Amino acid sequence: MSFSKVDLLDLDFNPFKMIGKQWYLLTSGDSESYNTMTASWGQMGEIWGVPTFTCMVRPSRYTYEFIEKNDYFTISFFNGEQKKALSFCGANSGRNYDKAKETGLTPEFIDGATTFAEAELVFICKKIYEDKIEKDLFLDETKLKFYDSDPFHKLYIGEIIATYKKD
């Protein structure tokens, strides 16, 4: 295995840079069937006494089907060398492409969850809460620009149950 389990509290990183600028792959499924998508929105923190990662997925995304039927998802961060692969995974559907084959990413299965060997840091998350984002709950109308005719996201809070770092 190319990863070692580490204590999340021992890591030193900037989530704003990692999530918003470097992006990440959100993946759900197992060795039988999985899908991944690139995301640049998300939140990290602590709620209900556990470390969590919050992600959002539109129901129109293929990954939505996987995250709905599975209890776990992974958040995989990469170095800048994979930016082209992440761009492909964000712009193309797993319904039409084998993203791993198209990008050269190597699926790796850890603790029953799917990530990629090229990742630098991986959070394995267990879903603990989900909810739909609702138009009527926005307090600032300017945020609605993200939803023109696109469906509203579904929000997933996952407890970070394991953290792996590349050896």
Task: Summarize the structure in words.
The chain is of the alpha+beta class. It has one domain (3-166): Roll (Pnp Oxidase, Chain A). Helices cover 18% and strands 41% of the residues. It contains four helices and ten strands; from the N terminus they run E-H-E-E-E-E-H-E-H-H-E-E-E-E. Strands 1, 2, 3, 4, 5, 6, 9 and 10 form an eight-stranded antiparallel sheet that branches. Strands 7-8 form a two-stranded antiparallel sheet. The chain is globular and about 45 Å long. The protein starts with a strand and ends with a strand. The model has no long low-confidence stretch (mean pLDDT 94).
Labels describing this entry:
single chain; 167 residues; alpha+beta; Pnp Oxidase, Chain A; eight-stranded antiparallel sheet; globular
